[in-house]
Amino acid sequence: MIEQLNQFEGESLAKLNALNDSESLKAWKGEVFGKTSLLSTALGELGKLPKEERPLVGKRVNEIKQKLTAAFEEKDYAAKAADLEKELRSEPYDVTLPGRPVTRGRLHLISQTVREICDVWAEMGFQVYRSREVETDEYNFELLNIPKHHPARDMQDTFYTTVPDVILRTHTSPGQIHAMREYYPDPIRVVLPGMVYRYEQITARSDIQFDQIEGLAVGKGIRMSDLKGTLTDFARRIFGKGVRTRFRSDHFPFTEPSAEMDIECFVCGGKGCAVCKRSGWLEILGCGMVHPIVLKNGGYDPKVFSGFAFGMGPGRIAMLKYKIEDIRYFWGNDLRFLSQF
Ligand code: PHE
After folding, report:
1. Rounded CA gap, 247 and 153, in Å?
2. What does the pLDDT read at residue 155?
3. Ligand 1 contact via 171 beta carbon (within 6 Å)
4. H-helix or E-strand spanning residue 134
5. Nearest-10 Cα torsion for 20, 24, 28, 34
């Protein structure tokens, strides 16, 4: 029996030495230590052996087991290391390569401009007030003292819906009425940013959908000089401390008197260039003292209260600031344009 075991040991070791991959090592292990292997059967047959041989055989079996196990583990370790090495080589990761850039999103230039403008107004005590984009004819026109025959009501300018008298707002001014009716009788300082819609030909200078920021101040004793001072302060905060402003008389049905504010052209410093069309001035916003009829429609008694309002286009301001020549870039969704800002 001992003789058989020694032979088994020698043969098994020889076989093991010839193996290199983990697959065949596994097979070898099953064969050598399995139920049908001599190591198992020898133990099972101990009882059939002469008494004095039994301990010797038992001891020899254990010795062989230990030896073969140790030899196997050594081989197995080497094979696993080789497997790992192979895997790493077949899928080479070069940790020194530069990473793939992750592109970051950004705010649209108009959104950036709207936020910048609202931030400045916030510093000056004006709160953001949100108003609906779908309006009634009454709020968009009637309550703002825009009479039935006014050209702004023309089919050319307004998007009508299938519901009678329900339209897309053509300006943010109807928000003035909403704000007044909500705030009455408190004083008001609000800015209303939002989208407006006009049924127009899309050109480099005009789009059917664009942003406006409305402003409204209502209280006791508010005068035209407050309007001029506040808007001039605003212009300096947005365009720089030294910027000069001028007010030109204008007409809006919902303000009286009405004006347009220009700022000195920041491209040529007022000398005259292509951006300001040689005038030295850039038109920035429309404004005026809230018309008594509008105050009354908002619930404020015009004999007690007064106020000023203004409206500006952030898109126009961005176009001037960044010398953008075509308004259609804003909705073009071209990253080559958008990612510049
Ligand atoms: N609603 C005017 C427009 O769309 C702008 C404006 C607002 C003018 C408030 C005066 C006062 O052109």
Report:
1. 27
2. 63
3. yes
4. strand 134-136
5. 150
Secondary structure of residue 286 in the 3-state scheme = strand
One-letter amino acid for residue 34 of the chain: G
Distance of alpha carbon 307 from alpha carbon 220, whole angstroms:
8
169 CB less than 6 Å from ligand 1?
A: no
208: number of Cβ within 10 Å: 14
**pLDDT attached to residue 156:** 65
Token pair 């007409």 is found at 251
What values do phi and psi take at 307, rounded to 5? -170, 170
What distance in Å separates the CA atoms of residue 234 and residue 296, rounded to the nearest whole number? 28
The confidence score (pLDDT) of residue 105 equals 87
Low-confidence ranges of the chain (pLDDT < 70): 152, 155-156
CA distances from 148 to 137, 141, 156, 200, 286 (A): 10, 8, 15, 20, 22
* Residue in the structure block whose two tokens are 């139920």: 35
pTM value? Answer: 0.71
Rounded to 10 degrees, what is the CA torsion of 297, 283, 315, 170?
30
CA of 171 to the centre of ligand 1 (A): 7
Take residue 156 and report the two structure tokens written for it: 């050319």
d(CA 134, CA 311): 18
The tokens describing 75, both together, are 């081989």
Distance 311 CA to ligand 1 centre (A): 4
